[in-house]
Amino acid sequence: MHPSKPSAPAGISAESAKRWQAHYERVTQGSGRLFLMAGDQKVEHLNDDFVGGNVASDDADPEHLFRIASAAPVGCFATQLGLLARYGNDYPDVPYLVKLNSKTHLLKGPEHDPLSLQWQTMAQLADFIHYSGLDVVGVGYTIYPGSRHEAQMLTEAARLIADAHALGLLAVIWAYPRGQAVGEREHDPHLTAGATGLAACLGADFVKINPPRDSQGVQDPRLLGEAVAAAGRTQVVCAGGAETSAEDFLKRLYGQIHDGNTAGCATGRNVHQRSQPEAVAFCKAIHAIVVENQDVDTAAKLLVRSA
Amino acid sequence: MHPSKPSAPAGISAESAKRWQAHYERVTQGSGRLFLMAGDQKVEHLNDDFVGGNVASDDADPEHLFRIASAAPVGCFATQLGLLARYGNDYPDVPYLVKLNSKTHLLKGPEHDPLSLQWQTMAQLADFIHYSGLDVVGVGYTIYPGSRHEAQMLTEAARLIADAHALGLLAVIWAYPRGQAVGEREHDPHLTAGATGLAACLGADFVKINPPRDSQGVQDPRLLGEAVAAAGRTQVVCAGGAETSAEDFLKRLYGQIHDGNTAGCATGRNVHQRSQPEAVAFCKAIHAIVVENQDVDTAAKLLVRSA
Amino acid sequence: MHPSKPSAPAGISAESAKRWQAHYERVTQGSGRLFLMAGDQKVEHLNDDFVGGNVASDDADPEHLFRIASAAPVGCFATQLGLLARYGNDYPDVPYLVKLNSKTHLLKGPEHDPLSLQWQTMAQLADFIHYSGLDVVGVGYTIYPGSRHEAQMLTEAARLIADAHALGLLAVIWAYPRGQAVGEREHDPHLTAGATGLAACLGADFVKINPPRDSQGVQDPRLLGEAVAAAGRTQVVCAGGAETSAEDFLKRLYGQIHDGNTAGCATGRNVHQRSQPEAVAFCKAIHAIVVENQDVDTAAKLLVRSA
Amino acid sequence: MHPSKPSAPAGISAESAKRWQAHYERVTQGSGRLFLMAGDQKVEHLNDDFVGGNVASDDADPEHLFRIASAAPVGCFATQLGLLARYGNDYPDVPYLVKLNSKTHLLKGPEHDPLSLQWQTMAQLADFIHYSGLDVVGVGYTIYPGSRHEAQMLTEAARLIADAHALGLLAVIWAYPRGQAVGEREHDPHLTAGATGLAACLGADFVKINPPRDSQGVQDPRLLGEAVAAAGRTQVVCAGGAETSAEDFLKRLYGQIHDGNTAGCATGRNVHQRSQPEAVAFCKAIHAIVVENQDVDTAAKLLVRSA
Amino acid sequence: MHPSKPSAPAGISAESAKRWQAHYERVTQGSGRLFLMAGDQKVEHLNDDFVGGNVASDDADPEHLFRIASAAPVGCFATQLGLLARYGNDYPDVPYLVKLNSKTHLLKGPEHDPLSLQWQTMAQLADFIHYSGLDVVGVGYTIYPGSRHEAQMLTEAARLIADAHALGLLAVIWAYPRGQAVGEREHDPHLTAGATGLAACLGADFVKINPPRDSQGVQDPRLLGEAVAAAGRTQVVCAGGAETSAEDFLKRLYGQIHDGNTAGCATGRNVHQRSQPEAVAFCKAIHAIVVENQDVDTAAKLLVRSA
Prior knowledge:
Five copies of one chain form a homopentamer.
Chain A: H1 14-28, E1 34-38, H2 41-44, H3 63-71, E2 76-79, H4 81-87, E3 96-99, H5 122-132, E4 136-143, H6 150-166, E5 170-175, H7 189-202, E6 206-209, H8 225-231, E7 235-239, H9 246-258, E8 264-267, H10 269-272, H11 276-290, H12 296-300
Parallel strand pairs in A: 1-2, 1-8, 2-3, 3-4, 4-5, 5-6, 6-7, 7-8
Helix pairs in contact in A: 3-11, 7-8, 9-11
């Protein structure tokens, strides 16, 4: 059964609520579930995700992301405004979500708790939408609960969510507990539930989390139950993580939705590290599970393999 | 005897003063005393307060808070704007208090003095009230006197109180001395009196404190005397703390009001960790003491017990 | 001889200059000297100054401050805006000075150089004055020269003084050299002169200092000479410090004015730690010396003693 | 073959897009490639680049930079607004790029991660352009990915790029991974590709990098491939570095363009450390390669040598 | 030969340029050279420069500065706005330069890199000028290249220079390399040239430096050559430093101008530590050299000596 269609958040004009509803319908493709294609890794992981190992050579070019998003049935494609400004006009049919903060992964270790600050202002984003005419459906922002810089990010998140809603835009929070105070616990199911509840309190429409693991480090979709409950009406989607086999991915995704009660997925590397035809087919398979509510076998038949 | 009805704070328009008076009357239910249901723990304690141990399974869902607040005779229900935006329209009869700052409890220990910053701006809050039509009666903000970040929080608190009053809203300060410089003294009666006096100087209408303890760590309502005196016309309410037996809670509350001269209570976990019927009944018992000025036995008759 | 009446500071409108002149006349009661009753200790010292030891029981209630200020011939009563908002309307005849920054004394020691930031904005203060109709004559702000946070406070002080003058308000600077870099020198006469000169450069109308001491820690009014000279047209007043006998206080005050050439006093604890009748009488005695230019014996006759 | 002419970034008015196109055409001199003369070293390296060793005596005077830029076929000359305000009117035909942030090289070593903040506001820049009538074609800003201060600089960069585009100005990012977390890796080809991809996500039109080196520290234009691919439609130009022989410079430049697929060069010291005639001739040789698409021998014939 | 009259900086309105020209003419007294009387030491050095040792007793009173500035042929007198607000109206003929940032010297040593922040805003300064009608010709600001806080000060400096020029005001930068990263090199001629070049890039009209010394710590006017060249059209003036004999001062000044090619001097202590008649005569001698282009012997005849 698909999640029911939510009402627009309170506290915005009727016109904004109408726009929010339309955006929600658009990104969930009428299913109540979201397939978000995440494409913010060129900052978050620099070029690590785009070359080497099993990464398809197509992925060296940023336009690869747009080609996939345009050809595949994604709910929305999330990336930074700069890339959108450069490629959006050539791919005008894609629903875009602007990732408003990003940081590199160069600063790490116990002495460098993560800090990721808002890039463009909401006024700049509003101008961008007005002048570009692109189909911008929402904004994304990453918070790191437990980071020494937590307070700064929670404030930015709360304000941009309120502003996004006032513009009729959706707000997606990437919620990753991290930092010296979090240590090894970042995939703990209970802490993950804390993160989704926090995102709900901030007003997020969707919260993207890393799927929780048990004390042996094993993922099990049933571990998601606490997080989905804690999020309440804020819908939970799992990050896809590093590339895995397409079939394993689909199985895990099916479990997250049907055993974990999540409302879709937000995946990046697993999509764009494949060649264009493979990536598009892979997106179709994800779409089958998330939006068409198919089973894994049916979805897997949509996959194509490189020669 | 009930505390007398206070005048609106000076320095605001006649219209704002009228609105402030109406809000004050509303939250004190004509009694001069406040029963504030505190529901900001999904950020402050993440999911720790909502699952496990004796916590009722109802509490895993954030809507539980709203169901209680709607069915029970609370003076106001305090929570973050994000949750309010998501559930408020379905519970339009509840008087809401927007908790404007919150932090997680992940950062602790001597190297992490608490810092909790304002989330939404007052302009965003005003828009929210305007467009939602919800019954927002005031704002809440936590200060941590003694934290290395004290100055930042005192400034935010002073400014938002002035702005809240200008909008005709009540201002409630959560005042918790904490940080390396405070150490073990956080429940000291004299320091608690310092905190209530500070809240009065900031302009708070109500100040929520943890009930003070003597040097053996024992709570005694008579220890509240200094804090209530120091607060002057700012009304003191005690936090409820972790769950305890309903009867013990009511006795302690009665003592705080009649021996400690506090003006009500602000309780969260003790309410929402119970099942819906128990929680509502418990609220009725609290209401009996705080608002109806009943004795403990009369109030306790309103309690219901789970099977 | 009384100090001559100063001109309004340059750089403000004729109307603001007129208001400044009226405020100056008001607080100096036509004498050119200021008797400032300081009542910001509920934040600065939390509840330490208000209970225990020889402190009169009246002082546990913040209204005690207003009762004294209303019944006694003080030049102005300085306190935080929050208290003023709560009690001001009941004591409308008092000339008030709004202390705009305050901090607690919980953070101390070499690792915690003092930081005290502005609470309300000047726009909020202007609204407060407009709507309350209270007799707000000026603002106060504490600087800590030598603190690691000095730069932040000097900037805030300079800006609020300019804004205060533009509104026709007086500006009083509390100047206390403090912090690890100052160490034991905080009462050094030469450093004190540095502080009064600094206040003059910031544009203060009055500067409140702790009376300097010689290398044995002894106060002598003649040690004030350098500081009064360095302040130029900015008038110097000494803080009263912890409670002492009323007669000693009056003698010291007389010396500060006649041997030290200061322009009055700014005292708090010495006033409000007494019972209401004693405190009012004590204020009359201070007024006799500061404003009426009487000698110590004449002034001392005005004192009353508790039973 | 020259790179194709790019479209203006999305999200700006048609008039701004037209101005952006004209500026792009102007700085690439119709070739799609950029020869940027970098003149921000008076801050970045203080006077180290301008005197001593083989530096021509002409270079001691800042006007030397303007004399070269005016006489030589540069695409644009980048310098700080202060110098431009002083010399621009005498050299009105030069296309200028305003370098908006700069820092000295005095703070270095592991305890001093680089921080370079925006100097003038965009409103000040817009006024400058309006009143001066100078041919300001764009702005420049340096980011240091991996610096502890990275977040602050990424935010400033993203905002000023959006503002620059809204004014029809080009945006050039100097992208230099640096800081304790980067250590010895700053010339690593893979990290360099991370930096160009990051600049693309910020929305830069051009990104200036230090040419990457292999593990032996050797430059090879083929190492640029990853960075140029990662940058996508953002054009990559290499910094010229410290002075080398003119012939070696031209060979390296030719390789960067034809083997590395870069879109020009951004050079400073190699130009201005020469005497006026040599510098102008050297610029003509660079222009021959970058804009006229000549080979090294043809370009080298344009060089002149000091007596 | 006198330096030629410079054009107004580009990027301001014709009216502002006209005002800038008039101010430039005024402070250089038609000579192209500047005699700036520096009077910001009451903050920078607290009371150290004003009492004790050979300091004339006149100097204990801040008005001494204004009496000298009014009676002596100074190009402008630089001091903080607060003093100006208090004394300016009584000395309306003096051309004033408002020193916009200042700090005390209490924080020193390797752990306390200097930080000096802007006091009044430019809007406050503009109001001050408008309402006071005083002859404010420009602003001053100190930067400390090499301080850990360098970035903050460079940004403030760049912005206030742009704003000053937009108001038709001159901008003078005090440029003092300092901090742990600078250490003993603060008087190094090459680093001094870096500082003057930096000031030029910020857009300063004049830059005040400490005269450079050779490796033995000896001042020689010829060491100024690099700094004067690096400053380009920004005029260099040397700080006067601690008091020395008037004749030695004049000789050194003559050398700085004629051998060092500086454009005047900025001196404070050497002037105001003398008695009123001596100070005025000393200023006349300085004026003779700086403005009248006299030799040392002629200038020295203007000196008077205390009894």
